[in-house]
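For reproducibility, we list the full input for the adenosine-5'-diphosphate complex.
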Amino acid sequence: METDLFIAGKWVPASSGNRFDVLDPATGDVVASVADGGESDAIAAVDAAAEAGPAWAATPPRVRSEALRRAWELMTERADDLAKLISLENGKALVDAKGEVTYAAEFFRWFAEEAVRGAGELNTAPSGANRILVTRQPVGVCVLVTPWNFPAAMATRKIGPALAAGCTVVLKPASDTPLTALAMAAILAEAGVPSGVVNVLPSRSSGKTVGRMLKDPRVRKLSFTGSTEVGRILLAQAAEGVINTSMELGGNAPFVVFADADLDAAIEGAMIAKMRNGGEACTAANRFYVEASVAADFSQRLASRMSQLKVGPGTDESTQVGPLVNEDTVAKVDSLVQGALESGAKAETGGSRPEGAGFYYPPTVLTGVAPDAAILREEIFGPVAPIVTFTGEDEAVRLANDTEYGLVAYVYTGDLARGLRVSERIEAGMVGLNRGLVSDPAAPFGGVKQSGIGREGGHEGLLEYLESKYIAVNW
Ligand code: ADP
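The corresponding predicted structure, in tokenized form, follows.
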């Protein structure tokens, strides 16, 4: 297990010599100590990325593609070990961690395929005076900042397209989960990615290290996944240097069930949309809006399914729901639940924090939630499903859109025309229509409103790392 910084192809301690602890969320015990990068390490990482930049940009796309393809193969071969590592530092159930490894590796395969598709355009000017030639060039050095909820996938979703485009990167992983990011760096090096193209800088002082890198004029792009709160700070910092940004921020996904929906399918979808990753996903269903005539049935069935889930250490094969990542997360989930209960909601299952070690929270279903409850406004990031009833399409759309977020929405209905109509009216970057999972490396992932700017995955994900250069030509 690598625990040092990865800069210019070498494992190095922090220049300060400082290290920080990584905890096992199932016990709160220390599992590793990792080098704590500071500002001078951040600059060393940018130096390495800037130095490696021109040669990597000039590397044939097919060669870049094959390195990514090899990284996909290596991740796939080592899926079990990587899943254990993810589970160890993040806490998620192994079944979720295995799902994450497949999803994460798939970004390398997808962008291996996209690396050879950075085509430009050629047109004749409307006046006929000249040709308009558009070529695509890599943006340059990218700073990638990732969260702890998908320690592998959030890294590969950024590294894959950056490398495919010919960019070099410094990745700053979340300090709760740096081990997986370091494992990704080792795999990329083994896959043939040259020294300096990928640098990984675990750091507990992320405000300082990321802030320092964003002040460096050699850094041309920031790709961030995390909270809207931190995203706002980083957007302001990026504005100083007019740095290109891709921001994947918070979500507050509505899960809308119309009375004409197939309720069996809606329950299956709800279990995935709510419980994938134990609810620690920006795509997690955060607010359930169920048409009044089927609400009691839906709530009882969801509560029954949720209460049967096996909660335990993520690394135990039979666990379905692991602990949350840390104490702050459990405390926040519990305060949202207690707030809802105090304002009149009823816990159909779960609803209070268990005694004992580890950062556990039980799967919880709340009914009768007051429309102004904080749990409907804030991202829960835990295994809690608050249910609210509605009547008719207009009310469903109004409730779904009553948030500053707009990442994803889920809609269940047996009427396809209604489903498409409502999907168009909902303010979100993505909609799951009769489906509880939208994430796919081949599709553009991202949000509107305060859920972010830009898209990751699909062909758009590659374009985020390319600049268009227009050459006016006479020939
Ligand atoms: P979460 O902890 O829910 O994943 P955050 O937005 O707090 O979401 O963190 C996402 C990433 O941003 C993490 O890598 C974290 O270390 C980093 N981060 C947090 N605060 C700052 C900051 N002020 N400047 C730069 N990066 C930050």
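The mean pLDDT is 97. The pocket of adenosine-5'-diphosphate is lined by residues 145-148, 172, 174-175, 206-207, 210, 226-227, 230, 233-234 (CB under 6 Å). Both points were considered when choosing residues for closer inspection.
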